[in-house]
Design a protein that fits this description.
57% helix, 771 residues, two-stranded antiparallel sheet, extended
Length: 771
């Protein structure tokens, strides 16, 4: 049995197209991020849909930006529309069933009606309902949806009730239906056999339908249309009414599964690619037109499939002229057309944007620009995303277009776009932003960007600080508070003000795609029972690590402006940097803080502080740094955990050396908080060059340990240096396969030294084999 369509968007994603077209995310990622403000989806979706937009981010999903446009246009969503807009996208998980997953309702009901052994459907792992896309090695589409099984189950119930004594015919019907479903995965399918001679009329009619359905699932669309036409011509068949509708569906699936063009293995000329994809598009469009011809009379009638046919007719029109169709529904959404299905409309628009370049990118930009010309909403969304603005820098082009549109319309959405994309202060934009009342959904966005662009840093800093205090009292979203705190830090005229604005509360920590997969914006990001995580954001660590000299870092650690653990992180980075740069005066100033945090370090730190000669300071400093685990000359970046590898003692031994400083001090100063002077940047640059010479730390420690042992062969600390130097290389997160020849030579030399001079040490027994 086959199923009726429900919504054409659901059919788009679940039946006709590829399983790669998904909603807020079915994804796979191994990254872990620390996120302080939402840039991909609103932090609180119900609040966002209710008109409290916070600072609208250009990186939001386009359907969320479409909602923002309408809210900014003084056309808020009503309760019904908000409920529809909050519904998740239809994804693969809504229809796909395989390998031990919970059974959808239709599959469960149909299987419950089967005898103990009834063909392949009872075999474990046989319920793969997806099928490989023709010509693709890794893309699948959902071939058999749950509603097909539901239809089959209900039909079987009806046949058993109507013909309880005709067991032979019922068994034959079931074998035919199992044959239909054997084609779902495209691997082991078989066709239903013709009804036996002398079979009752109902079985013959059902078998004709089953054969056409099996051909549909097998991808034999021409044969399916021929056999569905025969069913449609049989007015006595119970499938007479649905057969024409399924002929239209066969044209739709035939179109969407049109194979990608076969291109030469060597890179073909652009004209060849364009011609190949133009031919494919022409073939697809012809099939979509055929579908439209079939669906038109069904949709205009009053039969049971009129609504479904209208929805699939819309789908065909999308592909025939997707720019015109999507622009029309976008305009209807923007104008709050009565009776519009909000969820479906947003799915339509999102589908349009996601599939623009499915034809090899041949005409995606042209189609997008065509839609933008017909719809102000779509133009605004694409402008916010800095797309379709022609050659050159896309952000600059989008900013210029947004400013032009605002000057022409003077409406609120374009004011938000213009000031969001602006890179420099514009007095007209600033004046307009100041006129936006606090109760406007645009206020948070235009206020944030007005202050971002403000040339008077001191006045802006004071205004931002007052807003942050107010936002915290009003329990605004973490995204809002963190965005304004970041702005406050970058407008700071003193180190103390900068540090006071540096602590941020983490919004989300983990795989960033999880925020899309689980729709966390509908829930509280952090459990109330869990203490919030306080961390530095990337803007803060960039200033601390690359724009401040070590003396200023020490001053910051002594200021008392930071809570733990941030105070300790800065103190440890300042102390490590001071030791590596041979600034014992600065390192000693960090001693009280480090000993309060790590009393066990006292032996090594005091030995370093008491050293009398430069050589003694250097070696005691190296010993202290190698013993004091989890130290680095840099404050930890929020999205990189240098301690994730067990046993790692030299964090900055992982990965690449520190980045070289920007030689353009004037340009760097313009991108820094006001308190950062060119003199500070110059000193930080010189220190960075010195630190690069001791990076990665594992190599530096191993090399210096070995050099000291060779010059001072009788030093009683040599055993410790040998072990620590070897461990510096052995225990870093560098893979052995990626070691340089120099690193392997160092490691081998220290290993041999350990076993030659200290064969009875616990470390020689621990490290018996050189890796």
């Amino acid at each position: 049995m086959m199923q009726r369509g429900k919504h054409w968007r659901g059919v788009v994603i679940g039946v006709l197209l590829l399983a790669m077209v998904v909603g807020r995310g079915v994804s796979c990622s191994f990254e872990n991020d620390t996120i302080f403000f939402a840039t991909d989806v609103p932090e609180n979706l119900p609040q966002f849909l209710a008109g409290k937009l916070d600072v609208v981010q250009p990186g939001y999903l386009k359907k969320d930006l479409a909602v923002a446009y309408r809210v900014l246009s003084d056309k808020p969503l009503n309760a019904k529309e908000r409920a529809e807009a909050a519904k998740p996208d239809l994804t693969v998980a809504d229809s796909y069933y395989c390998c031990g997953e919970a059974q959808p309702e239709g599959v469960r009901l149909f299987e419950s009606m089967l005898p103990p052994v009834a063909g392949d459907l009872n075999q474990p792992g046989s319920r793969d309902l997806s099928k490989r896309v023709p010509g693709q090695d890794w893309e699948n589409f959902d071939n058999c949806l749950d509603s097909a099984f539901m239809t089959a189950a209900k039909t079987l119930q009806a046949r058993r009730a109507a013909h309880p004594t005709d067991q032979a015919a019922l068994a034959d019907w079931l074998n035919g239906q199992l044959a239909v479903f054997s084609n779902c995965n495209g691997k082991s399918g078989k066709m239903p056999e013709a009804a036996p001679s002398g079979s009752p009329a109902w079985l013959i009619q059902d078998r004709d339908y089953q054969i056409a359905a099996a051909e549909f699932y097998r991808g034999e669309f021409e044969a399916a249309r021929t056999d569905f036409s025969k069913v449609a011509a049989d007015h006595a068949s119970p499938w007479h009414d649905v057969a024409p509708y399924l002929i239209g569906r066969s044209w739709l699936r035939d179109a969407t599964l049109t194979p990608e063009p076969k291109l030469p293995d060597s890179p073909p000329q652009p004209d060849v690619v364009k011609a190949a994809y133009a031919k494919r598009k022409s073939e697809m469009t012809a099939k979509f037109r055929q579908a439209a011809v079939v669906f038109e009379p069904i949709a205009s009638g009053k039969g049971p499939y009129a609504t479904d046919a209208q929805q699939l007719l819309d789908l065909a029109k999308v592909h025939i002229d997707r720019a015109a169709y999507t622009a029309r529904i976008a305009n209807e959404f923007a104008q709050d057309k009565e009776g519009l299905d909000t969820w479906q409309t947003l799915q339509d628009m999102q589908y349009f944007w996601r599939t623009l370049f499915n034809d090899g990118g041949v005409d995606g930009l042209e189609v997008q620009a065509n839609a933008d010309r017909q719809s102000d909403l779509m133009d605004w969304v694409d402008t916010m995303r800095a797309e379709t603005r022609g050659p050159g820098n896309p952000v600059e082009a989008a900013a210029a277009h947004a400013l032009e549109r605002w000057q022409a319309t003077k409406n609120t959405p374009w004011l938000v776009a213009a000031i969001t994309l602006a890179k420099h202060n514009d007095d007209t934009l600033t004046a307009a932003a100041k006129q936006v009342p606090p109760n406007s959904p645009a206020w948070m966005s235009v206020t944030y960007h007005r202050l971002r662009l403000a040339p008077d840093h001191a006045a802006a800093h004071a205004e931002i600080a007052s807003f942050v205090k107010k936002f915290r009292a009003n329990k605004e979203t973490l995204s809002t508070v963190n965005l304004f705190l970041s702005l406050q830090a970058m407008k700071s005229s003193s180190l103390q003000d900068f540090l006071a604005a540096s602590p941020r509360t983490v919004l989300f920590e983990g795989d960033p795609t999880d925020r899309l997969d689980s729709n966390p914006e509908t829930t509280t990001p952090a459990s109330p029972a869990t203490a919030p995580t306080i961390s530095f954001d990337g803007d803060t660590t960039e200033v601390l690590n690359y724009k401040l000299p070590v003396a200023t870092m020490v001053e910051g650690a002594e200021s008392g402006k930071l809570p733990e653990p941030l105070h300790g992180e800065l103190a440890q980075a300042a102390w490590t940097r001071a030791v590596l740069l041979n600034r014992p005066d600065l390192a000693k100033r960090m001693t009280p803080t480090l000993l309060s945090l790590h009393p066990a370090w006292k032996k090594w730190i005091t030995t370093y502080d008491d050293a009398q000669t430069e050589d003694e300071r250097k070696i005691t400093g190296i010993i202290a740094l190698m013993n004091a685990s989890r130290v680095s000359p840099d404050v930890p970046e929020p999205n990189f955990n240098p301690y994730q590898y067990q046993g790692t003692r030299v964090p900055w031994g992982c990965g690449d050396p520190r980045p070289n400083p920007n030689p353009d001090q004037k340009a760097t100063a313009a991108q820094s908080p006001p308190f950062v002077t060119t003199q500070m940047l110059s000193q930080a640059s010189a220190e960075a060059a010195s630190l690069n010479r001791v990076s990665p730390g594992s190599d530096y420690f191993a090399r210096e340990s070995l050099a000291w042992i060779k010059v001072h062969p009788n030093d009683p600390r040599n055993e410790e240096l040998t072990v620590l130097g070897f461990r510096a290389l052995h225990d870093t997160c560098r893979y052995i396969e990626s070691e340089t020849p120099q690193e392997k030579e160092l490691s081998h030399e220290l290993f041999n030294l350990l076993h030659r001079k200290y064969p009875n040490s616990v470390w020689a027994k621990k490290y018996r084999v050189w890796p």
